[in-house]
Write a structure and sequence with these properties.
single chain, 364 residues, alpha+beta, Creatine Amidinohydrolase, Chain A, domain 1, Creatine Amidinohydrolase, six-stranded mixed sheet, five-stranded mixed sheet, 10 helices, 24% strand, binds zinc ion
């Protein structure tokens, strides 16, 4: 992506914030604003300062300055280095107005904020929660295509994993297969590889453990990471051998709930109403108490970010928002089912960025 697009984003962010300036430390906000993702986030201060009427400035440890200049330099952004032994908060403080009020990114460590409060005692600081993540929530065409490519890679990994052996192997072995497949399909980073077999599938937060997968198990697969800087996140539930009647029924209810929520996606609908559509299908099938999490979350330069499709979220969808739709049913001590696709809201409704089949697949 061109430097001019990053410059536009920095200008938009500066205008959107109520505060006079913005201070952004490493994390998704920094990546989105200027393209810089430090190889390691450490106690050494890195901070981007955006103020109206002047060029944005990035302060980095001097040893990381060449990396930062390569990733984010040139154009309007200037990069300055601070040297070990100096006080980086004093250095950053020289850039700030003594009585200025600054918005800070959610990911800023307390270490850094407290250091700033010490070096600029007259300054004021406020969270940018309602500004930066909401700007990031609406993707442009370039970002949607990056997310579509990440989704296609996750789809391909799922198709491949249907061919591996499940029965007799541990969950963590299948999780290893998923990580390898995501990497083979172009992911630079694997964030999670959930393999929840049998009763473990009933715990939505189960990752993958030592349990040996049995013939007759339902297995929840939920995996994703980053490809070319943008996220993937897909869930499918498979069955080892021929499924039983209740397993088929529960899977079909989740598939219908996911489809109904997808069909509800359109500009203007409140996030909570998409959640309600999925919940209504599951409730009317008698499994309402077993759908124990929100319907979805946004995705972009991270795999979890606003908007959240959850009761109480009145935010209306707008074209360009990308999010998961991932209803589930979790029967304690027995099994779980979750089906998840990434969806983008377009002018004419939803577009799935995961298009691999959602029918209950049988594995060996
Ligand atoms: Zn079974
Ligand atoms: Zn997921
Ligand atoms: Zn998800």
């Amino acid at each position: 992506m061109g430097r001019d697009e990053y410059e536009r984003r920095m200008v938009r962010a500066g205008r959107a914030a109520a505060e006079a300036g913005l201070i952004v430390t490493p994390g998704p906000d920094l990546v989105w604003l200027c393209g810089y993702r430090p190889t390691a986030v450490t106690e050494r201060l890195t901070a981007l300062v955006i103020e109206p009427g002047r060029a944005p400035r990035l302060l980095v440890p001097v040893l990381e300055r060449p990396d930062a200049e390569r990733a984010a330099g040139a154009g309007a952004l200037t990069v300055a280095g601070w040297t070990d032994g100096a006080d980086p908060y004093v250095e950053l403080g020289k850039w700030l107005a003594p009585q200025g009020r600054y918005g800070v990114s959610d990911g800023m460590w307390a270490l850094h904020l407290l250091g700033l409060q010490r070096s600029v005692p007259g300054g004021g600081y406020a969270a940018l929660t309602e500004v930066l993540p909401m700007l990031r929530a609406v993707k442009d065409a370039y970002e949607v295509e990056r997310l579509a490519a990440a989704g296609a890679a996750a789809d391909a990994a799922y198709q491949d994993v249907l061919g591996v052996r499940f029965a007799g192997r541990r969950e963590c072995d299948v999780a290893g297969d998923l990580a390898r497949l995501l990497t083979e399909h172009g992911h630079s980073q694997v964030d999670f590889t959930v393999v929840g077999s049998g009763p473990n599938g009933a715990n939505p937060h189960h990752e993958a453990g030592e349990r040996v997968i049995q013939d007759g198990d339902m297995v929840v697969l939920d995996f994703g990471g980053l490809k070319d800087g943008y996220g993937s996140d897909i869930s499918r539930t498979v069955h080892v051998g021929e499924p039983g009647a209740e397993e088929r029924t529960v899977h079909e209810v989740v598939r219908e709930a996911q489809q109904a929520a997808f069909e509800a996606v359109r500009p203007g609908i409140a996030c909570q109403d998409v959640d309600r559509v999925a919940r209504r299908v599951i409730k009317s099938a008698g499994y309402g108490e077993y759908f124990i999490h929100r319907t979805g979350h946004g995705i972009g330069v991270t795999t979890h970010e606003p908007p959240y499709l959850v009761e109480g979220e009145h935010l209306p969808l707008v074209p360009g928002m990308c999010f998961s739709i991932e209803p589930g049913i979790y029967l304690p001590g027995r099994f779980g089912v979750r089906i998840e696709d990434i969806v983008v809201c377009t002018e004419s409704g939803g577009r799935r960025l995961n298009v691999t089949g959602r029918a209950l697949a049988v594995v060996a």
